[in-house]
TrEMBL record:
This is N-acetylmuramoyl-L-alanine amidase. GO terms for molecular function: amidase activity; N-acetylmuramoyl-L-alanine amidase activity. InterPro entries: MGlyc_endo_b_GlcNAc-like_dom, MurNAc-LAA_cat, N-acetylmuramoyl_amidase_3. GO terms for biological process: peptidoglycan catabolic process. It catalyses: Hydrolyzes the link between N-acetylmuramoyl residues and L-amino acid residues in certain cell-wall glycopeptides. Residues 236-368 form the MurNAc-LAA domain. Its EC number is 3.5.1.28. Keywords: Hydrolase. The keyword Hydrolase applies. GO terms for cellular component: outer membrane-bounded periplasmic space. It is an enzyme of class 3 (hydrolase). CDD domains: MurNAc-LAA.
Length: 383
């Protein structure tokens, strides 16, 4: 179920993050387990705030201000756009004046939490309660190494949907194999690469939960689970390595025209050597219909920019959809593939609804539930 998976998702992202004191990951994750009720608090589910972090003006570069009612009344809390954003925000929060001196107390995880604990939550036994959760946090971090792949295996399956590859666009800080590190940046300052990863992680967990409930088996593999870049051909190669039935690439659009909006989905054109054109088009059409349905449920005015063949050549072409890269030219069972430009994050309304507003994470989940249904529906009919 998505709730149960959220803390695993956070652990997987954290395991892949570069932080200044890596040996403090275990104690900070333990602290977040405690603060968020293992990722089940509304603050965690709706705002990716696993630390109970109240909003402070210094947090503006990391978080938006959200009203939230906790056990001690209504207050302003930090709302984060992505799990990576929360991790960066937590360390920025600790970097503020009340915690001055913490960097002289980092030689062991225990010493760190005994130093910051009394400032963070001045109740007795707080640090010891966090320390008690460290083995659980360590287990989550260790399990995270294979977090790019997840499977639904219900006890009495009626249908195997096969393997799906999800490809979050961009990543990292340098260009790799034709893949740029980032393209669009949202009105609120969130990078497309971060949002694409979050969408793929949510989509994966929804697919697993939906399939399990429908007694279907499915395996979902991500081409990346952290902020690293992967070359275009290497992303497509996941399809042949995993003998996948389908690949879905997720990107967001950006434009200097702030009014630009809408969703569009691409498949490889015949002119780009597509050997399973009709199958790709049918898959792209089904996924796009799910995407549009979901987007219109949160914003009825969502513009349909259509399902389109990618007939570009040169650097603008969507190379990840090429049959040569997907391994389709020497496989009897071909992988269908489509490329979503989910929305324009440079549009203020879209930013509020999907990126930075108080309902952004709930809206994402609602949109992606429809995308997951569409993908499963189509994969069920694939040979
Ligand atoms: Zn992109």
């Amino acid at each position: 179920m998505p709730e149960a998976k959220l803390i695993e998702r956070l652990a997987a992202v954290y395991a892949g993050e570069d932080i200044r004191y890596p040996h403090l990951k275990v104690v900070t994750l333990a602290q977040w387990l405690l603060e968020s009720g293992r990722g089940t608090s509304d603050l965690a589910k709706l705002h990716y705030n696993f630390g109970g972090l109240k909003y402070r003006p210094e947090m503006a570069p990391y978080a938006s201000k959200v009203r939230y009612e906790a056990h001690d009344g209504v207050d302003n809390y930090c709302g984060f756009a992505t799990l990576e954003g929360f991790i960066a925000g937590y360390w920025a929060f600790i970097g503020r004046a009340p915690y001055t001196g913490w960097e002289s107390n980092v030689d062991t995880p225990e010493r760190f939490i005994r130093f910051i604990g009394p400032v963070y939550t001045p109740s007795t036994g707080y640090a010891e309660a966090v320390i008690k959760l460290m083995p659980e946090a360590q287990a989550l971090l260790s399990a995270a190494s294979d977090a790019g792949a997840a499977e639904a295996t219900p006890t009495s399956p009626v249908k195997d949907l096969g393997t799906l590859i999800l490809d979050p666009g961009h990543g990292g800080t340098t260009k790799v194999g034709g893949s740029s590190p980032n393209n669009a940046i949202s009105v609120s300052g969130v990078k497309e690469k971060k949002l694409a990863l979050d969408f793929c992680l949510i989509l994966r967990d929804l697919l697993i939960a939906q399939a399990a409930a429908a007694k279907q088996t499915i395996k979902v593999v991500l081409t990346r689970t952290t902020d690293v870049n992967v070359g275009i051909a290497a992303r497509a190669a996941f399809a042949s390595t995993h003998k996948a039935k389908a690949l879905v690439v997720i990107h967001f659009n950006g434009s200097t025209n702030a009014a630009a909006s809408g969703a569009e989905t691409f498949f490889a054109a015949a002119s780009n050597g597509n050997t399973n054109l009709a199958d790709d088009k049918a898959f792209a059409t089904a996924v796009h219909a799910g995407l549009l349905k979901g987007l219109r449920a949160v914003n009825p005015a969502t513009k349909d920019r259509g399902v389109k063949p990618d007939d570009q050549t040169g650097p603008g072409a969507l190379g990840v959809l090429r049959d040569t890269a997907l391994g389709n030219t020497n496989r009897p069972k071909k992988c269908v593939a489509c490329y979503i430009e989910a929305e324009f994050i440079t549009n203020r309304t879209v930013d509020k609804l999907l990126v930075s507003g108080p309902d952004a994470i709930a809206n994402r989940t609602a949109v992606l539930a429809d995308v997951a249904k569409a993908i499963r529906g189509h994969m069920a009919g694939l040979p």
